[in-house]
Amino acid sequence: MKYSVYGVVLLVLAVLTIAGGMVVSGKDVRENEMDKALNTAVEQTMEQLNKEGSYEIQNVQELIADFHQSLLLHISSDSDFEVKILTADIEKGVLDVEVRQTYQTLRGTKKEAVCRKTVLLEQYSDKQEYCVVEFLVNGTIYDKYTIYPGGSLSLPPEPEAEGRIFQGWNRIGSQGLALDGMAVEESAVFQAVFL
Length: 195
Known about the structure:
With 195 residues, the protein is of the alpha+beta class. It is flat and about 90 Å long. It is 32% helix and 33% strand. Strands 5-4-9-7 form a four-stranded mixed β-sheet, with no helix packed on it. It has a three-stranded antiparallel β-sheet with strand order 1-2-3, with helices on one face. A hairpin with a 2-residue loop joins strand 4 (131-137) and strand 5 (140-147). It contains two helices and nine strands; from the N terminus they run H-H-E-E-E-E-E-E-E-E-E.
């Protein structure tokens, strides 16, 4: 009799554990599906806005319609969805969307999950190449980074050399020391100057 009671208690605990796992898993699955569908729909809509050779989106209503169509293609859940378009601007290439999903759990209670996604479409008419800036100490790279042409030079921390005093950074191929914040228009290599 004693073992029967233990068996029933263990069975009840196992059922409760499985049910709890299904509730948590169900919520995660729904949130993951909504997040993935929203990401895909927003990105596809913005790519369509930027794509050359395809039809052109003429106004905000067409942008929103494209988004709704793409979102519906990626959702297979039986939940109720509320879609809020927070910002839609075809001139600036901005789409900000919030999706609220309402679903029922195994116990019959209603739960809600919210997901928001903002995408900015970046278009560069004259795409700039980066400038590579290198700082050498005794022929070895001490620091290296990239910036856009016209960006401000940021000097690295002063290097140390035993028995020598650091004077500054000299651009290879020119005279004078580099100044922190000076404009960089092209790739450059600077050599540490010691006395």
